[in-house]
């Protein structure tokens, strides 16, 4: 193939065509003159007969373009044929790519969702959260009365809004259900600049609660009302108020807490008791900066106003203004940062892992393509010798590689899709699942395509250039008897070393994270980790009837549930371990300075038995600790020690009287073992327990915990029947076993461990295929040499050993280079670990050992082939 | 490719120009002008070949590998490209001719059903 128009020199081709046309017209003119026509006229007629010259040129050029397109099509067809001829190679490459790019794309999208995505609101960069700072740490927003003054007095903000999200028990169409909802200022949606998907959103006027209105989330609208337009105007009851649904928030807006979906928004003013409280920080404040006002300027203004508060009013020295040091603004463009804080480090570690994995995949592809290029040396030589252009051959090789990569990328997208579903499931777990709104859209496809192209050029171009750097004569003449191996695949060996070094990092990471998770699961939590089921039980009092005394109701619930066959113990409490909820109170002894805050739990008698929290000294609560009896408290060891040290000269506090909160004196009657409360990693915090029937503060929300050996579903049904028999319409929700509760606090760790282990296994597979390919090629090339050596008496084992010696030193070198680099990287991840040091030798031994073993297996298979070569066969082929 | 032309001449059907070029070259290599002239003469001037339209067609045929060309000098010592039929082109000519005959018969049968055997 080689026409004039194939050269990239299109201008020359065009000149050529011009010349042809001029010649043609010249001849026609000449013919006409010979017919006896005057030269002028002869030329005119010739031009006329020829037709439109410009059009002719254009049409001809179109033929060339189509020809170029045809070439590409031909390249693709040829490429596909080559791939079909060698399906094993194609499969390995596609598999490698699909995993490398798929994993990267999935983790990129997770990162994007959790860490980078801005709120789907108007100009999110103008939004800030207003927070107070206590002892150098950020604390809640100002109490409502102060918030109102900030809102009215500060001029730096275009709008300021309070919001507090929590689980709400609402009633729709007579059915009680639990939703995730929020109360918010009337201008909340205006500050965010949102437009309704249906109806209208809340306004400042709605704060008057006349009539009370509710706005529902798009998801809830679809789920609960099937997206019907008559949802607007319907009622939602909350507490003892009825709210009318007036509108639906836009589909892309889920609230300001990433990962949680707000179903219902009510006016903040319906929290009448709380908004009067000048001491409690119970909501968050979001504000929009006025255009042109910097965050810094706004902070200065907020603190100036704060100083004014400090000076007037509140002279007791105990209120909010004296506790708080100053006010701070935090960017709210990406919403509340709970999820980010919790997952940013693990996610960075994961994306680093995914990047390293992709690099390993790249080196593997590099090795495979190099080997393949080398094995096709003859084919290229023949084609070059028969006149194929070098550029044409390069283009065809690249087409082939890119084709392969495009197939890989297509598979990678499905891998990414599956991985994203898996990751979403990972987060949507536990009592309050995290819903990640990972979008599988064109940005993801673009990302995958960009990575593919980069990888394709990186790993494809170079081996292609290399494969073409051959002298046709040598390659043609080259016989397989040539003593090869040296020289040609040096690069392949460098790639092996690099691949091993990178792989080591992933293997060590997997070992570290797996051991972290094992350690975390082995931690003594201080309570029973199995056979305990917790659920929220909320009796629904029909409107108009007098509620039964809560104590009697609860006692009856406990009696009946405890009486169920198979139930060991049942208890009611405000808190349960690792549920994520927390309450605290000040503790002191009259006449002494206050000790500060400790955790406080209200529990029924059997709480300690239900959770298997052992008694260390004294007694736990009994039936005799009634509302009228002496108020008693139980401490855990940490609290007992702290109190003993502060107040009782090291003596046990059992038998002493302490002051809990404002309300009164409690006699310490017992000490129980410590248990973890918020996380497995924490030090067990000091705890005080008081009987549910002798409350320090109201206990509106109780959790029922049941220790039993019954299957979860059976137990829940039995319990629901029992409590409904006592009070119909009781809502039993949030059923979760303690095991699940523990697992849901370990999401980040499990994510890291599972993915790191997955990467580690795949990396071993990649290393194995790369080495296997490289050594197999070398053995095939040197088969004659080996045959001869065996024929002249070389021990077969030594031949095999010689094969191994070609690559095993590179593996060792890779490990040697990888060790210090891995150690450096591991140190930065120390905070993610638990009970295992980044410098722990064991991890490195495990990683390096796994690599060495894999390498030996991958090399052994082709090496065995080398020593089973039949010398007679070789000599015959000679 | 349409410009004004005389009414008594017949415009070429799509694709037939390729066939005519192949047929012309069966007699031996020729340069572009000669091919145009041969077609006009061969059809007794009934077929109007706009000479310019010859060139895209020639390039198309080269691309398909049916014809090839050589640079040479013509009878009066002028530079010229001589197009000639390749083996592939020769086969193609047979196929195309067969197709053309079939087409012509089919159309004739439709236009003059009575004239059928």
What does this protein look like?
The complex is a heterodimer of chains A (878) and B (117). Chain A is an alpha+beta fold. Chain A has four domains: 10-85, no CATH class; 124-333, no CATH class; 343-522 and 746-877, no CATH class; 540-729, no CATH class. Chain A contains 26 helices and 22 strands. Chain A starts with 9 loop residues before the first helix and ends with a helix. Chain B is of the alpha+beta class and 117 residues long. Chain B has a single domain, classed as Winged helix-like DNA-binding domain superfamily/Winged helix DNA-binding domain (Arc Repressor Mutant, subunit A, Orthogonal Bundle). Chain B has helices spanning 16-25, 32-42, 54-63, 87-111; strands at 10-11, 47-48, 67-73, 79-85. In chain B, the strands form two sheets. Chain B has a two-stranded parallel ribbon with strand order 1-2. In chain B, strand 3 (67-73) and strand 4 (79-85) form a beta hairpin. The longest helix of chain B has 25 residues, at 87-111. The interface between A and B is medium-sized, with 26 and 21 residues.
